[in-house]
Design a protein that fits this description.
Distance between the termini of chain B: 113 Å
Structural class of chain B: alpha+beta
Number of helices of chain B: 10
Strand content of chain A: under 5%
Strand content of chain B: 15-25%
Helix content of chain A: 55-70%
Oligomer: heterodimer
Largest interface: A-B, 40 and 30 residues
Number of helices of chain A: 10
Radius of gyration of chain A: 20 Å
Number of strands of chain A: 0
Distance between the termini of chain A: 26 Å
Order of helices and strands of chain B: HEEEHEEEHEEEEHHHHHHH
Chain lengths: 227, 323
């Protein structure tokens, strides 16, 4: 978060892009649900919001003593959407920021059939968690694939990503036979993958929080202690 | 970063949350099996103690810290608890800090029903006797200078064979002993932090909720026990409290520690006095209450005398009529 205020433009841009990557889905979905924008308008608004935030350095104004960053960001989205609506401007695509190709169609597919949430704050938080976890899973896959350790990701995904209870209840021994490993290799790889996943997750949360206190609070929420 | 990876489903998200939270103690010593409970203070897992080949309950506290102070305190407490041998106290076997900084301890895995799940409608007298039994291990700990600090229905287990067990001594401390800031955090923060008022708080003494750990002594447990007593009466077949019983609860849950019973044994004794229809310490009764109490206490004798007097009266009237 400190990098958003950096003197070095390249560093500031990198930090900003990382932030966009973590938040664009929650922002898009929030605009769709809370502001009831049509998909195309929500795409424009998402891009417009981040462009405006970049141009006017919204996020540099963040004060960690007053709120969590994601609460601050959601408030900025609300202010942006309200202003745009009030001014009866079409929510336009902005120009200042480096354009990042975002898969709005995928985000839209995730929203398909979902009922409108009762609590938009919780909805935004949940989507933020989903974005962070999704990103950490992708990073884990990438790491193992780069190191020629795909089997670790296979085991991890069979236990922790598979849909349905049947998939989850596959025994270590059965999976070991299927993958040509020993049972202890399966348990060791699974433990290592979970450990790596947790570390990737915590790295991301740390990068997206401004203070140690905020980091701890987000970790508490992320791990579902108050669920 | 992988901006465009497809978003995870709700089910996968929950599963990953569990997986990320799963503790990893020394793999040569413990194999964590499954989560069996989650509360404001921590999460409990069933684990296999590989060295001793037995199942244990492994509790991971929600608070992590890096300074090592908490580890030192937990180790010290494990030492205290090792000497707290009582049939109503579930012993802590081991204590430590996970690689990610979260403290944990293992304890005996108890089979039974938590007091919190007790079906309503049992007789008040039965529940008061049960309460007196809950006080026994706590009173024993108090006699050894140990304060539990987290007494609540979820931490009392009713065993399959009628045992009454008080769990979760992992955050207990010696009375009068100050916690380090990090250690007191372990107790106060999860339950008293803004927006984190969880189940425990209704049972926590005010001085403890304020984080004044230096002032927390046996009377903080008395407060929690008073709340527990009120809970038990409220789920009994006679939820309306007689004045003497209400006075016991009031005294146990007085806002200032000075107004409370000095420890669990004093509270238990007053409850037993109430059960035996003796005058209780918490309430000065008037003449009418005294009469009622004496009637309740000597009910068979009073009824016998009354029956005798009625019979005599009937006999006298019958004779008077026949003469």
């Amino acid at each position: 978060m400190e990098a958003l205020k950096a003197e070095d433009t390249a560093e500031r841009d990198r930090a900003f892009n990382a932030l966009v990557e973590a938040y664009w889905r929650p922002v898009y979905k929030y605009l769709r649900m809370r502001w009831r924008l049509l998909p195309h308008d929500a795409e424009d608004a998402t891009q417009g919001f981040f462009s405006r935030a970049f141009e006017r350095e919204y996020f540099a104004k963040f004060d960690a003593r007053r709120a969590r960053f994601r609460t601050f960001l959601r408030t900025c989205v609300d202010a942006f959407a309200a202003n745009e609506r009030q001014a009866a401007h079409r929510l336009k695509r902005g120009g200042g920021a480096e354009h990042i190709s975002l898969d709005y169609a995928a985000a839209e597919a995730e929203l398909a059939g979902a009922p409108p949430p009762d609590d938009f704050e919780k909805f935004f938080a949940r989507e933020w968690v989903r974005a962070i976890f999704t990103d950490a899973v992708a990073a884990l896959r990438e790491r193992y694939s780069g190191a020629g350790q795909e089997v670790r990701f296979t085991i991890f995904s069979r236990y922790d990503l598979a849909e349905g209870d049947a998939a989850r209840h596959v025994s270590y021994a059965a999976l070991a036979t299927e993958l040509g490993l020993t049972t202890s290799q399966v348990t060791n790889y699974l433990a290592a993958a979970r450990r790596d996943f947790r570390a990737l997750l915590l790295d991301r949360v740390r990068a997206l929080t401004a203070t140690d206190a905020e980091f701890r609070e987000e970790v508490r929420d992320l791990f579902g202690f108050d669920a | 970063m992988s901006t465009n990876a497809p978003g995870l489903s709700d089910q996968a998200l929950e599963r990953l949350r569990d997986a990320a939270e799963l503790p990893e103690p020394d793999p040569a010593r413990y194999a964590v099996r499954e989560r069996i409970g989650r509360g404001g203070m921590g999460t409990v897992y069933r684990a296999r103690d590989l060295r001793l080949q037995r199942d244990v309950a492994l509790k991971v506290l929600h608070v992590g810290e890096d300074s090592g102070e908490l580890a030192a305190r937990l180790t010290r407490e494990a030492g205290i608890l090792a000497h707290l041998e009582h049939p109503g106290i579930v012993p802590v076997h081991d204590v430590g800090i996970l690689a990610d900084g979260r403290p944990y301890y293992t304890m005996k895995l108890v089979q039974g029903q938590p007091l919190a799940d007790l079906a309503p409608g049992r007789s008040r007298a039965d529940l008061l006797r049960l309460f007196a039994r809950i006080c026994e291990p706590v009173a024993f700990a108090h006699s050894r200078g140990v304060v539990h600090r987290d007494l609540k229905p979820h931490n009392v287990m009713l065993g399959e064979f009628g045992e009454v067990l008080v769990l979760d001594w992992g955050v207990s401390k010696r009375a009068g002993q100050n916690d380090s800031p990090a250690a007191s955090n372990a107790v106060a923060t999860p339950d008293t932090g803004a927006g984190r008022v969880l189940g425990t708080q209704g049972y926590m003494a005010p001085e403890q909720a304020r984080g004044e750990s230096a002032y927390v002594d046996a009377r903080a447990d008395v407060y929690s026990l008073g709340k527990l007593l009120a809970h038990l009466v409220s789920v009994s077949d006679a939820p309306r409290m007689p004045r003497a019983l209400a006075a016991i609860v009031r005294k146990a849950t007085a806002p200032q520690p000075e107004g409370r019973y000095m420890d669990a044994s004093h509270l238990a004794r007053d409850v037993q006095r109430f059960l035996a229809a003796d005058p209780v310490e918490a309430h000065r009764e008037n003449a009418w209450e005294q009469t009622l109490r004496l009637y309740r206490r000597h009910r068979p004798l009073v009824l016998l005398i009354a029956a005798y007097l009625v019979m005599r009266l009937v006999l006298i009237l019958w004779r008077a009529r026949t003469e």
